[in-house]
Amino acid sequence: MCGIVVYSGRGRDDAPALVLEGLKKLEYRGYDSWGITSVDRKGRVSTLKRVGKIGGADPRSVRKLLGSGSVAVGHTRWATHGGISERNAHPQFDCAGRIAVVHNGIIENYQELKAPLVARGHRFTSETDTELITHYIEEYMGKGLSLQEAARLVARRLKGRSAFVAVDTRSCRIAAARLGAPLIVGVGDKGRLFISSDVSGFLDHTKRVMYIDDNEMAALSGSGDRSRMPSFFEIGSGKRVRKRIITVGWKGGTESKSGYEHFLIKEIMEQKRTIAQAINQDDWRIRQAAGRIRNAFGVFIVGAGTAGRVCAAGEYLFSDIARKHVNSAVASEFASYRHYLTRKTLMIAVSQSGETVDLLDAIDVAKSKGARVLSLVNVFGSTLMRASDDYLMLNAGAEKAVASTKATTAQLSLLTLLAYATAGRLKDGKRLLLDTAAQVNDMLNPRYEDRIKRLARKLKGQKDIFVIGRGVNYPMAEEAAIKLQETSYIHAHGFAGGELKHGPLALVRKGSACIVMAANDDSKREIMGNAMEVRARGGYVIGVAPENSDVFDYWLKVPDAGSASPIVNIIPVQILAYHLALLRGINPDYPRNLAKSVTVK
Ligand code: F6R
Fold first, then answer.
1. Which of 247, 280, 301 is the last residue of a domain?
2. What was the pLDDT predicted at 332?
3. Same domain membership, residue 359 and residue 489
4. Same domain, 429 and 473
5. Are 579 and 563 contained in the same domain?
6. Where are the alpha helices (DSSP H) in 43-188?
7. How much of the chain is helix, strand and coil, in % rounded to 5?
8. To test the ligand 1 pocket, which listed residue (309, 379, 412, 598) has its Cβ within 8 A of the most ligand atoms?
9. What is the pTM of this model?
10. How does pLDDT run across 344-387, given as a tens digit for each residue?
């Protein structure tokens, strides 16, 4: 959550423009408000803050207000401490207006740290927790410490996962501290340096990066200094840390909408190829992972939100395909399982971003018990990837829309492949998934989308949508509900078909919409029975199934994909969610109150 981009160059650079461009790439991380502070060649400091999305910021007016210069620091915010206002947008400043700070994450001991500052007369102008960092740096520098040392001492006092960058607008020195939330240094040519919370913040300018690890910080000298290489330190001891420059091969995928109106529909359509891309893995790596799954004493698949629903589907996949018992868990609840973790446990961590704090905390729990971590992750170089013992890339390319689509089906594909490999049937798994990829390619045509659009018109006024499934499609029913909630703001509820009669059926009235995921598997007869129960009470039944039925009021045909049914069943609901958003006047890429990377608890 929240995006940081900082640029420090030399000579005639246009720092505010570079920061603006980088922040636009990070908008998916937070879009409540944004701000940029720049220092021009004459040392003049200007700040621009706005409420709303940075995507709409016009580079010409930003240039007019901020001029050009060689140093700029910017932030796009997802509000945590303090409401959405220009006052609370970052950068935040100390009393003298000299130290500019941008910050991601939460300072858990905020109250405790703020009180003494107030008592010593510091004036707080925002409601953010970030601002206290500026005042502490001000105090430490007032005692003669360098920016780097002052930032280090503050960082040592902060509790909770966060990251901040502080810029001394007088000397143009910069200090960046990582305390559990990502920060990466980009090393450009001719002494041009970037710092960002995500490589996409500077990937168009350099692919050479230096990762700041947890509890470390980076210090950049002023733009006039000859040596432009950053130095790295441990936050705890202040000891110097040596770093290598790594060239990132990851392109981050195409980041334009490629002619589509929104990222969401573009990413849905990209599933024509991302399923095949997800399983395009080295066989030996898949076999090695499968061997670890087979031999582990206790396997947990863990993820948050949509990824959590994928993990729940994974539990069924491993049972059905490999007869292997694995436990799925929601990342934020994983700590409750700590008593079952040992050195023989394998944790499979599933994540698009690789930055979800609930999942990173879950990994810490697993590691503290000596468990091994295998991650399935989309973002190369992410915290999750770097913290795992082994990783497999999802290969879905950058996913920008907040609602996950192509990463979801990539996760499902890779878990299905692993289940087949665990059963010693890797080739069968590959064949099935390649067939599924081809069927999805055929399915995603304009006529299919039109049919779903017609359904969206029928459903756009609904107050509630129910989704039911059984077996592996039970978690997919829950995932369908997440997609509908976040894009259309219609109350949607997904549950197991068998649970209908244990309560939710009381909510079904004439015209209530119920999506039924009816795969051609062992559960078909029973889920159709549940569909009938809804129909008998006047409900409007939408079947997502390979075959039509009299029970369905509306049929969304999907291929008969066998064990890959979760992949094909979720896609029509993704398209439905997109069109419901449009019909209800909602921007499908940026649901209110949500952000793409959830880096707070
Ligand atoms: C919903 C959605 C979220 C994410 C969740 C985990 O469409 O995208 O529920 O799945 O925040 O994110 P990652 O996969 O980045 O760990």
1. 247
2. 96
3. no
4. no
5. yes
6. 59-66, 110-119, 131-142, 147-157
7. 40, 20, 40
8. 598
9. 0.85
10. 999 999 999 999 999 999 999 999 999 999 999 999 888 999 99
